[in-house]
Design brief:
The structure is a single chain. By secondary structure, the chain is mainly beta. The chain is built from 4 helices and 39 strands. The strands form 7 sheets. It has a 22-stranded antiparallel β-barrel. Strands 3-9-10-7-8 form a 5-stranded mixed β-sheet. The chain has a 3-stranded antiparallel β-sheet with strand order 4-5-6. Strand 13 and strand 14 form a beta hairpin. It is globular. The N terminus is likely disordered. It is a multi-pass membrane protein. It is found in: Cell outer membrane.
Length: 720
């Protein structure tokens, strides 16, 4: 048996190896109450679990519509970074994986906060195993930078996905899919050594608990520590993950899991200043820093989840899922702003802060999905109820007495500064966010080649907040987000689609008086073609356009009143983005995988000016690997390139608003892996082969951050 999986006739008709939530458990399928024989699919393998496939090809996905559709049958652009690509590129964090996805760009705010963008706008919609996890952009403290070892893959649905997420974010929705227990006992240990004293170790054990394989568990432990190319800054991360899957009855499956992650950065800080006080540009080396030896950032998060699936005799499936997160966060640092004197290094301003925070999140999902007959044809429908509650209490202490002198900033380094005595921590953001909604979606088979997907969601959104002592309440109730998609199968290998959805997107951006901006409203349109070119090789092209009112845009040089480290925004109207995407991904030939894409997104304001200028308009990404055959079968070679067009930001300089830029650039990576035995392998990844110098961040608070220089990582893996 290929994957030790059982599936129903209906899944076979859809071209699925297994439904997304079954993964690798040997579940007995039911059809009209009769047990089916094992189904072995030897043609195109569309597994929802990418870990067991040596391929970059994607499988089924429910991220866009809650229906178990192949990528070809989903009326939106869908990209998947599979387990094989994650392994080939040695991607160590969820952020590194996301950066490889087509159309996704990244810039950083400081040492720990990253901003990801798609189709011209920042991404704010994230899911874990399909459960929405709200992330507040200002306080995310690393929420998008988890360890990659616990994830099977990342699915990215570009464009508005308000049907399931409750907000029609026109950028993208990102779904992190955790690893599940494997059907047979497997144990693997691996270790990495790399530049800047990187040391990483992973232990991964999966085993059935009974002879029938109806219950299985998996445990993953990771420790990763490294210095960085930035002086006096190092990262230390630990991750533990345990999950149990059990077939309680032939019709009922249960998944229980818990994960713990502790991430800490010593020497946390911001970027280096881009200007001297006389208005000239600085020219610091790539080790430039803006931190202190006592500055530290940490976050500690524990997540627990329970996921229950039940299969009815009529082929309908019911799901009840609950997730609970608890986190505590800390950031103690000195933020130097302003512009040093070219000769003396004096003149920068100081902001000392000691933050502590606690957060708890609860997510509850109830869904039902299955077929129904109407007018002599078979169709599909899905319904869902969702409720999310996010409580946050952030506290801040400032120096109890006079703040220490920060001295001079020369050659990309600040003078040593004593840590102040901190005063009493006072609450600065005590908030409770509740979002609930109900949705329904149906896939109608109008004719054999023509399918219509139509649905809508009703959303309630409430925020009670005391922000720096100012009590505020925000509430948006009865918001309806419609969704429609049309798919036409020209032949079994080629389909065309068109989709439409409206946009209702809350935003955690503040005006100069500290009030939140009203939600963004608008419309999103998309048309495209998807083709299966060969076994496990897919191509897609898409044209898209969205219009938005209320979109927040940074006010150059303006901060929130009383908050020198918080950017102020204003609402804009008539913003549009139009663009084009093309992707080729999967297996070109036996042993040869590739993921290649080109994207163009042009966000403009009502008066035609470019928006979101700190992210590129154009991107091209390529990574490919080849597993040799015959006597050289033990060797795999690969490489790739990420190219992006230029970016800029209008920022505050000594003489007023100044535009700072980063031109277009490409970063080239190489990899090689050799299997000394079927169980033992060694891999080398050479990143930024040409040692390209570029900015990861440009102009944020008039500062910049150098991208990572050339570095080598060597990995060893042994499987028992």
């Amino acid at each position: 048996m290929l994957f030790d999986l059982l599936t129903s006739r209906r899944a076979s008709r859809l071209g699925l190896l297994t439904l997304p939530f079954l993964f690798s458990l040997p579940v007995v399928a039911q059809d009209n109450g009769q047990e089916l024989d094992t189904l072995i699919i030897r043609e195109r393998q569309l597994s929802a679990d990418s870990e067991q496939r040596d391929s970059y090809a994607a499988g089924a996905s429910t991220t866009a519509t809650s229906l178990p559709l192949s990528i070809k049958d989903t009326p939106q652009a869908v990209s998947v970074i599979t387990h094989q690509q994650i392994r080939d590129q040695a991607l160590g964090t969820s952020g590194e994986i996301l950066h490889q996805a087509p159309g996704i760009s990244m810039n950083r705010n400081d040492s720990n906060r990253f901003n990801y963008s798609a189709r011209g706008y920042s991404i704010s919609t994230y899911q874990f195993d399909g459960l929405l996890t709200p992330i507040q952009s200002y306080w995310n403290f690393g929420d998008t930078d988890w360890d990659s070892a616990i994830y099977d893959r990342i699915e990215v649905i570009r464009g508005a996905t308000g049907l399931l997420t409750g907000t029609g974010d026109p950028s993208a929705s990102v779904n992190y899919i955790r690893k599940k227990p494997l059907p047979e006992f497997t144990a693997r240990v691996s270790g990495d050594l790399g530049r800047w004293d990187q040391r990483r170790g992973v232990v991964d054990v999966s085993t059935p608990l009974d002879s029938a394989g109806r219950t299985a568990v998996r445990f993953i432990a990771v420790h990763d520590e490294r210095d960085t190319h930035v002086d006096n800054m190092s990262h230390n991360k630990s991750t533990y993950y345990a999950v149990l899957n059990s077939q309680l009855t032939p019709q009922t499956n249960l998944s229980l899991g818990v994960e713990y992650q502790h991430n800490q950065t010593d020497g946390a800080g911001a970027g280096f200043p881009m200007f001297y006080a006389d208005g000239s540009r600085t020219d610091f080396g790539r080790s430039a820093s803006n931190n202190t030896d006592w500055s530290v950032f940490y976050n500690e998060t524990t997540r627990a989840f329970i996921d229950l699936h039940h299969f009815l005799a009529n082929d309908w499936q019911l799901r009840a899922a609950y997730s609970y997160d608890e986190g505590n966060y800390g950031l103690t640092y000195l933020f130097r702003s302003g512009f040093p004197d070219r000769n003396t290094g004096e003149g920068m301003s100081a902001y000392f802060a000691d933050y502590r925070g606690d957060r708890s999140r609860q997510d509850v999902h109830f869904t039902a999905q299955g077929p129904f007959a109407f007018l002599g044809r078979e169709h599909e429908a899905a319904f869902g109820l969702v409720r999310m509650q996010d409580k946050l209490d952030m506290r801040l202490a400032t120096p109890a007495g006079a703040a220490p002198s920060i001295g001079a900033y020369r050659d990309g380094q600040g003078q040593a500064v004593a840590e102040p005595e901190w005063g009493v921590r006072a609450s600065v953001d005590d908030s409770e966010l509740v979002q609930s909604g109900a949705y329904g979606v149906a896939r109608f088979s109008l004719t054999d080649p023509l399918h219509l997907i139509i649905g809508a969601r009703l959303t309630h959104w409430d925020l009670d907040q005391v922000y720096f002592g100012d009590a505020r309440q925000y509430s948006y109730n009865g918001e309806i987000t419609p969704y429609a998609g049309l798919i036409y199968d020209f032949n079994p290998a080629l389909s065309g689609y068109a989709s439409y959805t409206e946009i209702f997107q809350t935003q955690n951006l503040r005006s100069t008086d500290g009030s939140l901006l009203d939600p963004i409203t608008g419309r999103n349109y998309e048309v495209g073609l998807k083709a299966t070119l060969a076994d496990q090789l897919d191509m897609s092209v898409a044209l898209f356009r969205s219009t938005q009112d209320g979109l927040g845009q940074a006010i150059p040089g303006e901060t929130v009143n009383g908050r020198p480290d918080t950017q102020a925004y204003r609402a804009t109207h008539g913003a549009t983005v139009a663009g084009f995407e093309a992707e080729l991904t999967g297996r070109l030939a036996p042993g040869w995988n590739m993921n290649a894409s080109f994207t163009l997104a042009n966000p403009t304001s009502a008066d035609g000016r470019r928006m979101n200028t700190s992210h590129p308009r154009q991107q091209a990404k390529l990574f490919t690997s080849y597993q040799f055959d015959g006597d050289w079968r033990a060797l795999r070679l690969g490489g790739g390139m990420n190219w992006q067009s230029g970016i800029y930001r209008d920022t505050r300089g000594p003489a007023g608003t100044t535009r700072v830029t980063q031109g277009s650039y490409a970063v080239v990576d190489l990899m090689a892996r050799y299997d000394f035995t079927p169980d033992f392998s060694m891999q080398m990844n050479l990143n930024n082969l040409l040692d390209k110098e570029y900015y990861d961040q440009v102009g944020f608070y008039s500062q910049a951050w150098w991208g990572t220089p050339r570095n080598l990582r060597v990995s060893f893996s042994y499987q028992f």
